[in-house]
Amino acid sequence: MEATDPVPLDPEIAAVFAALPPGTFDFDEWTLETVAARRAERAALPAPVPPPTTTVFRDEQVDGAVRVRVYSPPDRLAPPRPCVYWIHGGGYISGSALTVDPRLNRWVETLDCVIVAVDYRLAPEHPYPAPLEDCFTGLTWTVAHADELGIDPARVVVAGSSAGAGLAAALTLLALDRGGPSPVHQVLMYPMLDDRQSTPSSRMDGTVVWGRRATALGWRAYLGTAVADVPAYAAPARAVDLAGLPPAFVAVGGADLFRDESVAYAARLLAAGVPTELHVYPGAPHGFDVIVPAAEVSRRCDAELLGALRRALRPTVRGAPS
């Protein structure tokens, strides 16, 4: 398909990217053959020192196969708290829940909630449906162990970023169809939803952070060679019926390859009667809120995301806290 020109970056974000060393984001150079080595290289990079926090975490093994990291306030004697079930990003080929995540620490402190982050298996070693089944296993375990985790099983929000948001969208579809746990909300940050890559934004050349070749690699690794007709559980943009899904918060940058598929998915949720909040941030590339958190557009996104999480975790009835 014919390429399109990238959208100009927000000036604050552009200045930060101009100062970064070449190759800081090299995902377009990854191949199926080098994924494991590239993944190991990035994991070996020094991790930034996280800000001080009162949040505590522990790692759990679920059903002998799936690992989760549980973040919680230090006081575990409080009444049951709401829960964010978090699914990390990484194009289906990288990332881990078993790393220190300052953002999740801050959410626990700010929202007084428990967070369960699932460490799903990665493609291409484990293509679809293994990552999604891991996410479903972790969610089922979370709800089944609500008392032990100190959470209210009726107030669980599924959230994710990038491929993790794609998995979050797929997980809500799967849970609905299986009659499994029922999240009260889905939070999709720049979700990776559509393997067809047929939208204008998906054809943008020269995007920073995550480009066309990285997207193609991620889908090729995730879908593998065994999937002839791609199901909606693998690529939620293909879902025919979105009715009955939990309310959604969808956020994406205007300079992100996933912009158009995110907007289209939000529009289809609305058309299906699903309460949906959509935000498109001008000039913002993929992962902007994490990579350049001090930019005004990132701070605005963070405030709106926190507001959505707060409303989802602690809904009000007739204006009073529930």
How would you characterize the overall build of this protein?
- Residues 318-322 have low confidence and may be disordered.
- The chain has helices at 11-19, 35-43, 102-111, 130-144, 146-149, 163-178, 212-223, 259-271, 288-291, 296-313, and strands at 56-62, 66-72, 81-87, 114-119, 151-161, 185-189, 248-253, 276-281, 316-317, 320-321.
- Strand 9 and strand 10 form a beta hairpin.
- The radius of gyration is 19 Å and the shape is globular.
- The chain is of the alpha/beta class.
Overall tally of structural domains: 1
Topology-level CATH name: Rossmann fold
In the CATH hierarchy, what is the superfamily? Alpha/Beta hydrolase fold, catalytic domain
Q: What do the pLDDT scores average to?
A: 94
Gross morphology: globular
SSE order: HHEEEHEHHEHEHEHEHHEE
CATH-scheme architecture: 3-Layer(aba) Sandwich
Helix content: 25-40%
